[in-house]
Structure formats: C-alpha cells, structure tokens
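Record pair follows.
FIRST:
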Amino acid sequence: MKIIEGKDSQQLDVRIRFDSEEEKQAAFRLLAAMHQKLIGLQRDKEYLLRLEDVCFIASSDKRTFLYTAQGCYESMLWLYQIEEQLNDDFIRINKATIINMEHVTSMHADLGSRIRVYLDTGHQHMVTRTYVKAFKQKLKGE
C-alpha cells in the first residue's frame, strides 16, 4: 500500500494504491467500521459508541445528546449531521429526536394522528404527524 498526499495546502488529496485485493477489502472494512461509531462526550472524556448501543438521539437547547442503556453522552455534531451517518435502524420521529428501531418495545396511537413509542430503556417519545407516514413505512419494512 502506498499513500500519496496532494500538494495543495488548502485541500488534502489522498490516493491509496493497494498491492492486493485483500489489502483493499481490509481498508474498506476498516472505513465502514469507523462509520458505525459515534463520538460521545461525558465528563470531559470522549467515548466511541457503537450504533447498536445508541437507543435514541435528541437535540435540546442547541445541543445534541446520544442516549444508551449506560447513560447520556453529548455530541459535538448537529442532529442532521448525525442522521447522515446512521444506518437503516434509525428514523427521525420528530424535529428533535431520532430513535433506534431495534430498541422499540411497544407503541400505541395517540391523539392527533400521533404515535407514542416506548423504548427498552424506559423512555417514551412521540412520533409527530409530520413523521408518522415514514415511521409506518419503516415498520412495514419499506
């Protein structure tokens, strides 16, 4: 493997030449694994959180928080930036919340065409009317 850096100081141009297909596949697996984790801050320490451990992500007062069964972590990213990194297990359910469907234990219809969702952590969230259609499609597997 050979890495060549670009000459422009304003832009990083990296080209990687692999010596074998195995090397190339290993590098792609490593890059994919990097995208399967989020960085969360708790008491001035950074933690790498696996996506499957994140139950939901919420935004409040211009801050974004990652909730797991082990606790709450702050993210330096905006909610929409995190949403771009997530896999298909996650869905936005209102303006300020994204949930991991793998942690949903139950739900029921609520007033005003909304849906109340219960997570295995004991938290409950409201799917607002704007997001109900996409939520139902996710339930159907579409």
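SECOND:
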Amino acid sequence: MTTIISKLEGPLSEIILAEFGKILSDHEMEILDQSQSLGEVWVGYVDGHFVCCWGLIPPSFLSNQAYIWMWASEKVPHQFLFVRHSQLQMNKFLERYDSIVGQCSLENGSAQRWLHWLGAEFEPPVNGLRPFVINRSA
C-alpha cells in the first residue's frame, strides 16, 4: 500500500470528475475550485486512487489564522496512516499560522474523531455545525 499526499497544482474539480465521475453538482464543483483559488489544496492518494482533499484558506494575506476544509467521497481507507499524515501536515500548518479554524457537521462522527486527533477544541453546535479551533502549542 502506497500513500501519497501532495500539494495540488491543477484544478481540483477536474481531478474529482476524472476519478469519480459526476458525483458533485456544478455549484459544489465551483465551491471547491473557488476554495482552491483562495488558498492551498492538498490531495491524498492510496494505491494510486484519489481518496480525499483538504485545504487552507487564510482570511487575508497577513492573517495568523486559516480556515481548514476537507472533502472525501467516502470513508478514507487506512485510518491510522491518514491520521498520522494529517498530524504531520497539521504541524506544518501550525508553523505558519497560530490557529486553524473550521466547522464540522454534527452528523459526521468520523470527521469529528479525525479533528480530535489533530488537536481540535470544539465549541457548542450552531445550526447543525460544530465550530472548532486547533491552536499552535506554546
């Protein structure tokens, strides 16, 4: 089994379309491409198959905080390796930003566990979403 995580250079929507077909609406594809244009995107492959992508969007060029998002078509295989690679990547993010923020669906237990392993501190739910923050260690 080979796991590859790399920074994405090409259009994210084209990769998802090539790998999975038309599983997202045009609006969802537009949101992913817009997210990529506003920040940075990384992709994860297992045995040559695209399994997920995530990105960081800073609110401004000078900000010390960034918003993180993630997309996967299904449960990411090889959870232990995925969590470990995510922890290493999060350490790199926190070298650049004091904190990483985001929101997670209340219904997505696996995403909440992943975020917990990354050090997320959750806030009370708002409209079906759990805001969180991951802070740089002092």
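COMMENT: The chain has one domain: 3-135.
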